[in-house]
Amino acid sequence: MYTQNTPVHIKLWHRDFLKVSASGFLLSTAVYTQVGGYVPVMQADSFTAVQMMWCVMVFVLGMLMAGGFCNYLIQRFRRNKVCGAAMAGTAAVMVLMYMQAMDTQDTYWSIIIVFLLRLLLGACYGVAWQTLASTLFVDIADSFRRTQTFYAASWMLRLPLAVGPVAAISLVMFWCPVPAEVFLLGAVLAAAAWLLLHTVTFPFKAPDEGVSVYGLDRFLLPQGMPLILSLAMFMLIIGLMLGCVHSLHFYLMLLAGMIVAVLAEQYVFMNADLRSQVVTGLILIMAALFIELVRPQRMSTYVVPLLAGISVGIVSSRYLLFLIKLAKHCQRGTAQSSFFISWEAGLWTGIALSIYSIGDVDIYDLMNSSMDKHPDISIAGLMLAAAALILYCAFVHPWYMKNKNR
Fold it and tell me: 184-206 pLDDT, tens per residue?
């Protein structure tokens, strides 16, 4: 059925939506392979802990620098072309990172080149995902399903947080012992995302007039800063955990926890109090960190990531819906981009701080690292989680209830 040449779909998950979702999933998986694989590459190249920390942080800087240009780019050019070019850029940068990692000559310029490549990777990935999440998902969904669309799209960002490291660690463990091959895996996944995106036909949208080259539209939601900072604080805790763990079963259990979170949202929190989801998630992450701190036994290696996965799933979903309901009708795409920036900035900052905390270790010790070997990280995460819970209950949630639009 068609109305004014616009297709109306009976279900959200129609063919084009599935293709775009799979494209976003592959793109995020490509980048998150570096959560489990990039640090061993840097360690193999004899980077110091400080250098590794800044290599991770410069990725966030790239996303923040490029994010303000996103609205101008999609108004100046076809939005699917902008997203496709950014995906292709992501794949190309990963190939260059592989070539640099395989270069055995250790020179002064090596670290500079890595910094620049990481900066460019953050910029390409940021533009690709912001364009995908804030515009392309919306273009192929019906207007009365926008919130449902944003919710589904966000899971294409969150699930790869576990799937990407599983793919990277499996590659190194079972197929190719060279850590740099992780970059080729990421390049292949990003190229597959680009190919899949180009099989979808998007409707033409007339550009707006008088668009500034750099701005906050489709980048950051100014009135949502308390939610953005609160989510970033939570993801920083998750980043602290992931930065010191490089085991396959940890990420498999993290994925299992996220799947449990999807079910919990449907059957446990469907009609629950608004604050219950975030409060429960923060309590779960505190429980996971406490168990890791006081009972570092084999069973905890399964319980801790499971609880962490549930926490990530239910907390981030609620923050996304809060940002959407806080935004005005024409700002819902900006709310989705704000969620993405907050998620990524908090996650990679936590990973960078965790790497710095671990310090200089050899690659064997790094690949066998676990949280029980670094109790200071568990203590720091526990303190941050407690502070996040207090801030949420005392300030963030009351502020949201007072300022929400819907």
Answer: 999 999 999 999 999 998 877 76
Give the tens place of pLDDT for each residue, 42-70: 766 667 778 888 889 999 999 999 999 99
> At a CB cut-off of 8 Å and minimum separation 6, what does 118 contact?
55, 56, 58, 59, 62
Residues 382-391, mean pLDDT to the nearest whole number? 96
Angle between helices 225-242 and 375-391 (to 10 degrees): 160
As given in the structure block, the two tokens for residue 250 are 């940890």
**Tokens read off for 42:** 């840097």
